[in-house]
Design goal:
Helix 10 runs antiparallel to helix 11, helix 11 packs antiparallel against helix 12 and helix 13 packs across helix 15. The strands form two sheets. A seven-stranded mixed beta sheet has the order 9-8-10-11-7-12-13, with helices on both faces. Strand 2 and strand 3 form a beta hairpin. The chain has 365 residues and is an alpha/beta fold. It contains 15 helices and 13 strands.
């Protein structure tokens, strides 16, 4: 058995989320956010190239892409477990980061996603964004949304992913999953989104909106009467809006603000924290429902992140949930500790967190 198979077996058995394989070190597993050495010997250069050959499987296009760009995103299936693999270079030797993808998608209730997110999937058109930093569970939430729509609605769903992680089987909906990349189903996200306009889909899912051109295509798709769901690497709902606006030159920002205020319907910005007992991960979702107040904030000539944050804080009646409220609820329900919650906030907001926790406790949650 090659060393890589031993590493994969241990990672699956120990329910790791990620595997880090670096020459000269023992393999490292990420388990509940902690980095833990695997029970495997130090990785040699020979082990690295054996692992590379195992993952590439003689694919000339993938091999050429890695040699040209010094990086490669690909997928791997091992004993029916799908994995997302990133290969990069360090000191001229490949480094592997492997994400293990659970076969069974958790339900909304298990994830801790607010009910409003499920309701918004019934919208006929608009833009929904799932955001968060790396390792915040965006892909799991996104695919749980797809699975829910597939089970409950009669739609044609088209996904663009790099690479495909969860394999969905059609239920009430038709699902077409396309992998993005050199030699794959679509060369780029922008190509995939542009062609989606001709594919008669009801819902377009974009695995990652990386640049202005993909964002423009997503907005065009939403304007044309489709529901578009995508992900962005941003840490809050307000920052998400700010990031989109700043993709554009100043002279074009007034127009994009107007379009965004019309087609953006929901932003979920999530974080994954260790549970209070350190046995699992807890999802902390900030939710922004784009109502008239938020739309007005987006359209203003001088965009203000703090105004958006205030609108979210005061938008509980429409389903919005601020980060402070989400953290306070998690503390009250003993999912995380107050100390953990405080570490997620700037100093100026810690007193507000304490007051919010006290108020929610006195109201019986």
């Amino acid at each position: 058995m090659v060393v890589l198979e031993k590493i994969l077996d241990e990672a699956i058995e120990r329910e790791a989320s990620d595997i880090h394989i670096i020459c000269g070190l023992k393999p490292v597993l990420r388990i509940n956010k902690s980095l833990i050495p695997a029970k495997i010997n130090v990785i040699t250069e020979s082990d690295i190239y054996n692992a590379y050959d195992y993952i590439i499987k003689g694919n000339v296009l993938s091999d050429n892409e890695f040699k040209k760009n010094r990086r490669l995103d690909t997928s791997l299936t091992y004993k029916e477990t799908r994995m997302r693999v990133n290969i990069s270079n360090s000191d001229g030797i490949p480094v592997f980061t492997i994400r293990i993808i659970n076969d069974v998608l958790p339900s909304f209730e298990e994830l801790g996603i607010p009910e409003i997110v499920r309701k918004m999937t019934y919208m006929q058109q608009g833009l929904i964004l799932i955001t968060g930093k790396t390792n915040s569970g965006k892909s799991t939430t996104l695919n749980s949304l797809i699975n829910y729509i597939n089970e409950k609605q009669n739609k044609k769903i088209l996904t663009l992913e790099a690479p495909i992680e969860y394999k969905h089987k059609p239920k009430k909906s038709i699902i077409i999953q396309k992998e993005v990349g050199n030699g794959s189903d679509s060369l780029t996200f922008i190509d995939g989104v542009s062609n989606a306009l001709r594919e008669d889909c009801d819902i377009l899912v974009i695995g990652e909106i990386r640049d202005k051109y993909t964002m423009e295509a997503a907005i065009d798709m939403a304007e044309a009467g489709h529901l578009v769901i995508g992900t962005l690497h941003t840490k809050s709902c307000a920052e998400t809006v700010d990031r989109i606006i700043n993709l554009y030159d100043f002279k074009d920002q007034a127009q994009i603000k107007y379009l965004l205020s019309s087609i953006l319907k929901l932003v979920v910005s999530q974080r994954l924290l260790k549970s209070a007992d350190n046995t699992k991960l807890v999802l902390i979702p900030e939710v922004m429902v784009v109502d008239n107040i938020v739309s007005s904030c987006i359209r203003k000539e001088k965009f203000s992140v703090s105004e958006i944050e205030d609108a979210i804080q005061g938008g509980g009646n429409n389903g919005s949930m601020s980060l402070i409220n989400a953290l306070a609820l998690a503390v009250i329900n003993k999912k995380i500790t107050l100390e953990q919650a405080e570490k997620q906030l700037e100093l100026k907001n810690i007193e507000l967190l304490k007051r919010t926790t006290q108020n929610l406790t006195s109201k019986g949650n």
